[in-house]
Write a structure and sequence with these properties.
Low-confidence stretches of chain A: 1-23, 204-224, 272-283, 433-483
Radius of gyration of chain A: 26 Å
Pfam families (chains A, B): Otopetrin
GO molecular function (chains A, B): proton channel activity
Keywords (chains A, B): Cell membrane, Hydrogen ion transport, Ion channel, Ion transport, Membrane, Transmembrane, Transmembrane helix, Transport
Main location (chains A, B): membrane
Oligomer: homodimer
Subcellular location (chains A, B): Cell membrane
């Protein structure tokens, strides 16, 4: 051991390989992360406290906090824009992978819906503002300003790799990111309070009474002590609750783009790493597909919408027809998830025969995408596992329990296989790449990365010595000769698959995002875990499940363009 | 945009820079991560379900699951050991940073305590095994076998970078890691049920009655329907509850080591990256310090133990003296945390004048350490913020509320500054390094990494062009000439600081780990949030806070050796 200590100094020469960049980035990032964590936890405390009416934290406190945060974020954004305009040398590089067009397009779309929501909210609160605190009207107005400024900011500078005032920029970006996450949390909490309120008012009789009172006061806390009687007020209230999902997605989209900007602060890009753009040229859209995927997807989409509307109508109606609505809902979901699982699986199988080079660029956007896909899926996993345990251990052995079990199992399988497919797709180079590979030296090196592990298990194929250290010869070896017609057929299949999955994910986003809650209509889990525990599980995990769908859609759009 | 698409193929040459290793590792890791996530979620569901007696999941189900997992893990470990013994070529490289001696030492220590706990558990259950299911006696026995096998396995092969059966090894390691995390979860849940049980039995009268019944049944579920009357049985029961903290730490230590092994699977190390060993040569221990840190730390340690015992005695006694006990407890903690904050701060100040080279090696162990320090601190942050909100918004304005507020604020400050100090220390090279730096070309390049950010803000110091791309000349520039006597004095200070912080962290680990719960004795938060919500917050967050202390101790020991 002591001789190893002696060897310590010897290895300072190889040290530079990692480069000083990483380290001073770490040092600079620490501060901003600490700031973000603390602000976020404070917001989290107030928001979660405000959700329980037993707790003496009122929604006005939460509104005040959010308004302050948004104003500060707006000030910083304006400062950033002014500064970058003033000194053009501030942004020497732009990350071509950051802020792809559809992400920014989605941001604008959701931003517009958020503005509409803010109008509704303002109208709702101002319809009885004499008995309201001013903050409740100030909050949506501030949010509107914040949304406009931030959307413009992200549209023009999502690709920036800024190189001035590094620490200040990091802190500013992290603070804006924190603001978006706080808005997301507030919206999610407000929506689940509303859900629980409507649910408990429909089951006003049974064991939920204690909670009902809580939720009712919390739910109506938005309306203060005044009641919302006028028709226009009702419209406003209904309207802004239906627009919540867009506000939620807006915050999350903005957060991901801000995170990538934060990662890119002070990043040094070689001019060659400008990367292939992922922008779909509109001409190529829907061309080069067999039309099977899009059409099948559209059919499922329309059927799904119909099922969703039937479900909502029947569940909100008298309880007798809830059973029937649930059966329809589950059957549709089982069919949809089953097809998606098979399709993703076939996509992965196609990749086993694909010989395109893997894309090895450092790419914060992709790393984040993969992390978010894997992480957001946990929410749905958790709900499914709780359902499985409830059904398997629980007593009822009826049709609904069986459907519920199949639904939960398929949900897990679908998430797993779709993640595998998307992640593998995101690491493929663009279609042109394979032509640039040199023919392989050994037969067993014409394999895709997924099989490269197997190399080491095969005695015939020792790990190539070039793999030690960064070797310019590396990936070319993993690439092999390609046959154009086959690949064309293959990329067509992949385009079909990605479009089909994309449409399915949209409909599976719409259902929970706009208020379908079979978790509560179906009594299996509620009876098994008790309402409060099950409500906590669903209200914490479901937002991630919903975000997963939206994020999968944007990733699948990228896959469609790449393949 | 389309022209960017055209440039896509052009940049395949630079692609290899990132190297194929990363990518095929990703592909190989995906499978094992998916396996781990799903097994862990299933275990999480059963364990959390078993904690609530309203839920029809019994602890026997949990025991059965854990026993099965441990047996499978043992089988895999034996298979791994046999295989590595069989073919010596399986482990071509060993990561010198992985499994440092004190980590393995701590593992053995905690493992022994876990074995004692298993003996107690076996005795406890076998004292009335006629009305027990056999699994309750089988479980501790299996755990003993598992602990022995796993400790041996980690002792001999924590440093391995294995290169055969990569996928199988990854899955096996991830499964063993999952098993440890499941054991940790089960222990934490069991302990908090026990805590809540003892708490509610002390406040049997008030609003906790509903919970009391829950907890009592859950708590005594360990005893099934038989009562534990005999003296020896009581001893066993008391004993194994006091040994839980060691079991918890054992699982976490094993998990971190397994994670590093997993990261090292298929890793290719240049022989030069064997790194400086972090092993403290026993002679150098306590030498080269001013003895101020150790002595002050020991005083605080002893005082803390006394305070802890007084607190436990008075709180468990009649409720009249709880107030007094809390005052003593808080005052000690405030003094301790205040000193720690100042000391960590001074440590960071010293680093501003330190000119040692930064250690730039790729080092999974250190990356994990930093991530765990930052992540585990979140638990304590959350508790503190909830306390702050409760005190600030809540009505009572007495001495205890003030102490509570000061305690919470200092807790946050202490975590922040200690993290900054530890993370900066871990990135320093060994003391010998600075002599290997070449004198700086420009005056403003003799700064530590924390100030390198400032370089770009100073007009006089443009970002050095060498920073573009990996430049062998990079870090040497960040190093400047050093003056030996000063540095000696500096490293002495750092050793004192790390030893002082180390001892403080040990005492701050002991208090909560062995059952000090001022969060419940002090009624501010309980009254503000209500018992069930506050119990959920504390029982979820506190285990991370406890783990943070233990992990900080091991990191500080490393800092002591490095400085």
């Amino acid at each position: 051991m002591s001789e190893e200590l002696a060897t310590g100094p010897k290895e300072s020469p190889p040290a530079p390989r990692a480069g000083p960049r990483e380290v001073w980035k770490k040092g600079g990032r620490l501060l901003s992360v600490l700031l973000a964590v603390n602000v976020l936890l404070l917001a989290c405390t107030l928001i979660s406290g405000g959700a329980f009416n037993k707790v003496a934290v009122y929604d006005t406190d939460v509104f005040a906090l959010l308004t302050t945060m948004m104003l500060l974020a707006v000030l910083w954004i304006l400062f950033y824009l002014l500064r970058t305009v003033r000194c053009p040398g501030a942004v020497p590089y732009r990350d071509a992978h950051a802020g792809p067009i559809w992400l920014r397009g989605g941001l604008v779309l959701f931003g517009i819906c958020t503005l509409v929501m803010d109008v509704f909210k303002t109208g709702y609160y101002s319809s009885f503002f004499e008995c309201q605190s001013a903050i409740k009207i100030l909050h949506p107005l501030t949010q509107a300003v914040f949304v406009i400024v931030q959307t413009y900011f992200l549209w023009v500078s999502a690709k920036d790799c800024i190189h001035t005032h590094l620490d200040l920029t990091r802190c500013g970006l992290m603070f804006t990111l924190t603001t978006n996450l706080a808005i997301w949390m507030a919206a999610v909490v407000d929506e689940s309070v509303h859900q629980a309120h409507s649910h408990s008012s429909s089951h006003g009789n049974t064991s939920y009474t204690r909670l009902t009172q809580d939720w009712e006061r919390a739910g109506s806390a938005a309306g203060g002590d005044c009641s919302c009687n006028t028709a226009v007020c009702q419209v406003f209230q209904q309207g802004y609750f239906y627009l919540y999902p867009f506000n939620i997605e807006y915050s999350l989209f903005a957060s991901t783009m801000l995170y990538v900007m934060w990662k890119n602060v002070g990043r040094l890009l070689a001019s060659s790493t400008h990367g292939h753009s992922h922008t779909p040229s509109p001409i190529s859209l829907f061309r080069e597909t067999f039309f099977v995927g899009p059409i099948l997807g559209l059919i499922l989409f329309v059927v799904g919408l119909a099922v969703f509307i039937i479900y909502e109508v029947q569940v909100s109606g008298e309880t007798g027809r809830t059973q029937q609505a649930l059966v329809i809902y589950y059957i549709f979901n089982i069919v949809c998830l089953g097809l998606m699982t098979l399709v993703s699986l076939s996509g992965s199988v196609i990749y086993r025969f694909d010989r395109r080079a893997m894309d090895h660029h450092k790419n914060p956007t992709r790393t984040l995408d993969v992390a978010l896909l894997m992480g957001a899926a946990l929410g749905q996993y958790a709900i499914s596992y709780y359902s499985i345990v409830a059904v398997v251990v629980g007593t009822p052995r009826d049709l609904l329990a069986g459907l519920n079990l199949a639904h939960a199992l398929l949900m897990i399988a679908q998430h797993i296989f779709q993640n595998v497919f998307i992640i593998e797709s995101l690491h493929r180079g663009p279609p042109g790449d394979e032509t640039h590979g040199t023919p392989p030296r050994e037969p067993c090196q014409g394999l895709t990365f997924a099989n490269l592990d197997a190399l080491h298990t095969l005695p015939a194929c020792p790990p190539p010595a070039e793999l030690v250290g960064p070797s310019p010869a590396g990936p070319q070896e993993a690439v092999s000769i390609t046959s154009a017609p086959k690949d064309h057929w293959r990329s067509r299949c992949l385009k079909d698959i990605s479009l089909f999955l994309l449409l399915c994910n949209i409909i599976l986003w719409i259902m929970p995002a706009f208020g379908a809650r079979p978790h509560f209509s179906n009594t299996v889990e509620v009876d098994f875990y008790g309402y409060s525990l099950w409500a906590a599980i669903v209200n914490i995990c479901l937002p991630f499940g919903i975000f997963y769908r939206m994020h999968a859609v944007s990733s699948l759009l990228e896959v469609y363009v790449l393949s």
